[in-house]
Amino acid sequence: MKKWIGIICGFMLLITTSLCTSAAEDTVTPKLIVQGEGKVSAAPDIVTIQLGVETRNASASIAAQENARLMNSTIKALLDSGIDKKEIQTSHYSLTTEPQVEPKEGEKPQPPEFIATNQVTVKLNNTEDAGKVLDAAVSSGSNSIQGVSFDLKNPEPMKDKALTLAIKDAAQEAKVAATAAGVKLGKVLEISEGYGFIGAAAPKGVMYAHGAITPIQPGEVEVKASVTTTYAIS
Fold it and tell me: How many Cβ atoms are within 10 Å of 30's Cβ, its own excluded?
């Protein structure tokens, strides 16, 4: 029994010594940490529009009823323009009052004004239709355009390309740094990655011209990738 205890204790001591040695070696391993960046651009293939209706009245009921009438007309126009019903989603609805201003001395307080707001988000699979859709909505009663943004249906291939470029950029940075420092690059010890997505967007408050389609330019969207790479050096 004592013999087995001695063998087990010796084995555990060997493991502990090995781990401590490994940890010590890892602590003193010279490292070079560099960063790389890659970015690619592509034409967007989907567009998201946020639009709606805002109505005001001293009567909450009338404000809400007028809002409903105009929004129903707007939604009908969107459907008539070929947009699938599932691509139209209510994103905001509210019925509030305008903050009241304290009346001056001798003046009567003004009755509150009720504000009804209904916003929908519309997704289009054809970026060229954005201007026509905006015009149809405005002509049917929409009086609030919150924004127009462009995106990619499948950004993964673009992310892969950007990541590849980022890793190559980091490798080049490492070579330059190692040469300048007079050290030799070893194996890659660690790579951490990150992504950034910059979508082209039209400014809020789109202007409209009678008799002409509102010009909406999709431009390009940019996908960025960044990496932090750790090399062993000697």
Answer: 11
The mean pLDDT of 138-157, rounded to a whole number, is 92
Least confident of 77-91, 99-113, 181-195: 99-113
Query: What's the CATH architecture for 29-43+155-233?
Result: 2-Layer Sandwich (3.30)
Q: What letter would DSSP give residue 87? A: G
Between CA 122 and CA 114 the distance in angstroms is 26
Q: Per the structure block, which two tokens stand in for 164?
A: 């590849």
Report whether CATH 3.30.70.2970 matches the domain 46-101+110-151.
Answer: yes
- Model confidence pTM above 0.85: no
DSSP string, 28-73: H--EEEEEEEEEEEE---EEEEEEEEEEEESSHHHHHHHHHHHHHH
The whole-angstrom separation of Cα 91 and Cα 71 is 13
* Cβ atoms within 10 Å of 185's Cβ, excluding its own: 16
Closest CA to 134 of 48, 47, 214: 214
List, in sequence order, the alpha helices (H) in 81-195. Answer: 130-140, 156-181
What gap in Å lies between CA 126 and CA 48, rounded to an integer?
A: 10
d(CA 58, CA 55): 11
Domain ranges of the chain: 29-43+155-233, 46-101+110-151
How many CB atoms neighbour CB 80 within 10 A? 10
Tell me how far apart the alpha carbons of residues 120 and 90 are, in angstroms, rounded to a whole number: 4
Phi, psi values for residue 154, rounded to 5°: -130, 95
